[in-house]
Amino acid sequence: MKVTIRYIDKTIFDGQANEVVLPGLHGKVGIKPNHAAMSVILTAGEICIKSEDQDDKFPAIEGIAQVGNNLVNILLTD
Fold first, then answer.
1. In whole angstroms, what is the distance from residue 48 CA to residue 66 CA?
2. pLDDT tens, residue by residue, 23-76
């Protein structure tokens, strides 16, 4: 699935992933390909992007993620 992580003024990740783990309001949220459409409010924690050959981690303070049609769009606000 395609994953994009960005701030309002810049993109910090744009690539493919097998799994995304997000720091949601009520705990970690795992997203895999063909996941149901949803929105996740992000809190302080770590976004983990897992692909076949590596794991990337990005700090998050606040933001929102939208999931649907094998796309995960993450907008960080801080």
1. 15
2. 999 999 999 999 999 999 999 999 999 999 899 999 999 999 999 999 999 999
Q: 1 pLDDT exceeds 90? A: yes
* Number of domains observed in the structure of the chain: 1
Range of the domain at 19: 2-76
The burial class, CB within 10 Å (0-12 / 13-18 / 19+), for 41 is middle
| Tokens read off for 57 | 């981690």
**In the prediction, which pLDDT does 78 show?**
73
CATH number, domain containing residue 69 = 2.60.15.10
Tokens 């949803």 identify what position?
38
Q: What is the DSSP letter of 18?
A: S
Q: Sort strands 27-31 and 55-60 into parallel, antiparallel or unpaired.
A: unpaired
User: Are 49 and 41 contacting, i.e. CB atoms less than 8 angstroms apart?
Assistant: no
